[in-house]
Design a protein that fits this description.
6-stranded parallel sheet, Rossmann fold, 11 helices, binds alpha-L-sorbopyranose, 17 strands, 2 domains, 9-stranded mixed sheet
């Protein structure tokens, strides 16, 4: 068998997204026939002891404590940015300038200006065959991709309603510390950019329509939280009232939207929906059918066929596990089901295939910029007393 060309991956960050991405890089060649062999070359983190441990645990051959050293390495062909949003632009721009492909976690950046610079650098780098993509992974769950295929095939007819929520509850406890996702200077925004970005990308992907205007409100329910133990100097079990800090992002974002294909939409992103753990749900209503995707039942779709005989019509449950369904050829027999982590493996498979065939990966940095423009319009609308606000181009 001919020796496959290697693709050296250098990953920045090794927390939740780092673990999900490295699982994908480790497994993708074992389940997909790809023209490139992924090599987990190096992982980067600021704390030497912690990143050395992460390198061993996640399966990387080496580690660095400076992302600039990672980018300089000859064994790195692709930089995978799994660090907080405040680092995305600086690392992506440097990586592209160094001739490295880039996969950047969502949202693309913490501001429109940063996202524009990244999209422009990505466009310029393409001329030299350097590719880039943003990690909106949910569109690569088989049921989400199949939903897009059903809409594109006209099975719902003319789309009229898009109804999307992303509900979590991990911040309901006021004693939850002031983590980086609660600090504007690191995260850029709160629920809006963290999980709202997902439903913006996913609904635009499935419907093929883009959000053109929004009317929004945001809310921060708990404005002050204990500093993390490593900052307050007090152990979490000291029982002493520790130092606190201000929450500078939204806890919840809700908005109405018009899409450029004529559909009207409602969006809700919150981390205060007590009892909802990762409750991303999209419902589409068209002239000929309706469709529901629910992340907490991610191997299924609910489909209502408006063309069926009314006497026997109703929402049917489609089990999206047949070999002919997206990505399923690589996995198990029908009915065995996939999980959250498979979306990252499919993301890796499609990216490696794009790099090997010299095609543009999706979603691109330009797609990431467009999501950033929607996030910006939502924030401007909320700040402007929930005025209807156009999404800039
Ligand atoms: C938020 O808690 C979060 O971790 C997001 O940041 C991820 O993008 C999402 O996949 C799971 O929830």
């Amino acid at each position: 068998m001919t020796q496959r060309q290697r693709l050296g991956v250098g990953m920045v960050g090794y927390a939740f997204m780092g673990a999900a991405h490295s699982h994908a890089w480790r497994s993708v060649n074992r389940f997909f026939d790809l023209p490139l062999e992924v090599d987990l070359a190096v992982v980067c983190g600021r704390d030497q002891e912690k990143v050395a441990t992460a390198a061993t645990k996640l399966g990387f051959r080496a580690y660095e404590t400076d992302w600039k050293a990672l980018i300089r390495r000859d064994d790195v062909d692709l930089v995978d940015i799994c660090s907080p949003g405040s680092s995305h632009a600086e690392i992506a721009l440097a990586a592209l300038a160094a001739g490295k492909h880039v996969l950047c976690e969502k949202p693309l950046a913490n501001s429109v200006d940063e996202a524009r610079a990244m999209a422009e650098a990505a466009r310029a780098a393409e001329a030299a065959g350097i590719r880039s993509a943003v990690g909106f992974n949910y569109r690569r769950l088989p049921a989400a991709t199949f939903a897009r295929d059903l809409v594109a095939a006209g099975r719902l007819g003319t789309l009229r309603h898009v109804r999307a929520v992303y509900l979590q509850d991990w911040l309901v406890d006021p004693e939850f510390p002031l983590a980086w996702r609660l600090r504007r200077e690191i995260a850029g925004s709160g629920a809006l950019g963290d999980i709202g970005a997902h439903i913006i990308d996913l609904t635009q992907f499935i419907t093929g329509q883009r959000i053109s205007s929004v009317c929004a409100l945001t809310e921060t329910f708990i404005r002050e939280r204990p500093l993390p133990a490593e900052e307050s100097g007090l152990s979490a079990t000291s029982g002493q009232p520790g130092a606190t800090g201000q929450v500078t992002v939204d806890d919840a974002a809700l908005f109405l939207a018009r899409l450029d294909g004529g559909a009207v939409a409602t969006y809700e992103a919150t981390r205060f929906a007590l009892g909802r753990k990762n409750g991303l749900r999209v419902e589409l209503n068209g002239s000929d059918g309706s469709l529901v995707f629910d992340l907490e039942r991610l191997n299924e779709l609910e489909f209502y066929d408006g063309r069926a005989d009314n006497d026997v019509s109703g929402f049917t449950r489609i089990l999206v596990t047949e070999p002919g369904h997206p990505y399923l050829h690589a996995w198990w027999p029908p009915g065995h089901g996939l999980g959250y982590e498979h979306s990252f493996t499919h993301q890796a498979a499609d990216l490696v295939t794009a790099l090997a065939t010299g095609t543009a990966p999706t979603p691109s940095f330009a797609d990431g910029l467009q999501v950033q423009l929607v996030l910006d319009a939502v924030a401007r609308s909320a700040a402007d007393g929930s005025a209807w606000t156009a999404v800039q181009t």
